[in-house]
Design goal:
The protein has helices spanning 2-12, 41-64. The protein has 76 residues and is mostly helical. The chain has one domain. The longest helix has 24 residues, at 41-64.
């Protein structure tokens, strides 16, 4: 699966990864309607919880990683 290969590459690069929870979402016709609403209530609840945990993960990563100034390599 492509996600597992990507996870290996990210590990090699020492990139932060959210290891839990994991989500493998398969294609399901009409799972998301034309305006972006999730049509299955249990899937919607799962995705909302997943995004809340993803937000918490991002906050933790940004709290721990040093904030370096971005410098353009062509600047003198």
């Amino acid at each position: 699966m492509a996600q597992q290969s990507l996870r290996s590459v990210l590990s090699f690069l020492n990139a932060p990864q959210m290891n839990s929870p994991e989500a493998y979402i398969t294609f399901t016709p009409d799972l998301i309607d034309a305006v972006g609403n999730v049509t299955n209530p249990s899937t919607e609840a799962f995705l909302r919880q997943f995004m809340e945990e993803f937000h918490d993960f991002i906050v933790r990563v940004l709290t721990v990683l040093p904030h370096e100034e971005t410098v353009c390599p062509t600047d003198p």
